[in-house]
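A brief tutorial aside. Many learners find it easier to grasp structure tokens once they have seen a single protein encoded end to end. The record that follows does exactly this for CENP-V/GFA domain-containing protein. Read the sequence first, then the structure, and try to relate runs of similar tokens to stretches of the chain.
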Amino acid sequence: MLLQGRVCTSFPAPLAFEQEALSPDCIFCSWTRTSQHFQVDGSIVFAMDEQPVRRPYRGSCHCGATQYIVFLSFPHAQPPARVPRADARTHQDFYRCNCTTCHKAGIFHMRLASAPEDFLLLKPLDPYNDLGDYTVYEKDLHFLFCKSCGMRCFTFMGKGEVADVDLPALGIGAGTDSGVEEGETRGKDGSTAAAAAAGEKNMTKVWRPKKDGWVEGKKFGSYLSVNGYSVDAGQDGFDLREITEKKWVGYCDWLELHSEGSQGTRHDRPWEGGAY
């Protein structure tokens, strides 16, 4: 995003600044993120960082028996370096873990800012029964997988619920197999004709984490991690290469060989036993 204003000689270019630091001589709209500016034909041109935009993305297993919508915000804002252990997670995070479970299962963790609001499972609607379930150690996390193709789309802990959701109102258009063709609307009796005659909204049944009582974190009994490798390719704004190249991915150390415990998280290089 570019903004142009009058020449301001009080700041050398390029320079990172906040809105409060600008000279009154500069023409500038309301902005709070850091930026850089440079001179073009006697004018100051401001090159702004983009504001994060929340968008829906489709995901699925390889055979299509599992389909979901996940909401992600890009450009990604790095989470705090260390969230107090007593606090619930409330930020989007990307990471890879070097524990043998996550590594051998091929999981690219995407933790969401709000699991009940950012994840909609289109099918199946009863994941605990219709998907395969692998648990280890404390048997608390459910590494769910498609019984047909074996793909692991998400890992879950906690309670879920089936709800009727107006997908178009959430910005979700065609391209999702929810049992309703593009342009169709289902009425209360399940018929598309009745819905069209009544002018009803396009309501789709989905499964999602239950918002009531949900506090994100294993210690709180609620956990959702979406596997980034299961997000469908070719969607604007989602690129796993970019996520890695911009060092948005944290590399966690939970390898069972380390009896001394985790060495923490870093963004430059995976720990022993891990991978980019």
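Self-check: Confidence is low (pLDDT under 50) at residues 1-40, 44-48, 178-186, 190-197. If you spotted this yourself, you are ready for the next section.
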